[in-house]
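Suppose a colleague, Dr. K., hands you the sequence of a protein chain of 79 amino acids and asks what its three-dimensional shape might be. Before reaching for any lab equipment, you can write down a predicted structure in token form. Begin with the sequence itself:
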Amino acid sequence: GVVLALSGFQNPLRAHLRAAATALGAEYRPDWTPECTHLVCAFARTPKAARARQQGGVVVGATWIWACQREGRRLSCGP
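The predicted structure, expressed as tokens, is then:
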């Protein structure tokens, strides 16, 4: 049930993050939409991140994607 958008990443890192997330079963959107559940941010204190939080989204960093990939499953977004 993860639908994510990426913010603040340039290719090729952006493409690697997208590929890792979709390989785990996440859906990707090129920009934040109300159907997104997660915003993967390079910088957490941006207007886009604030908007995502206001709309009930979870803001995470790239390390969350890499950790999920290492474990082969969706991990908690908490600390």
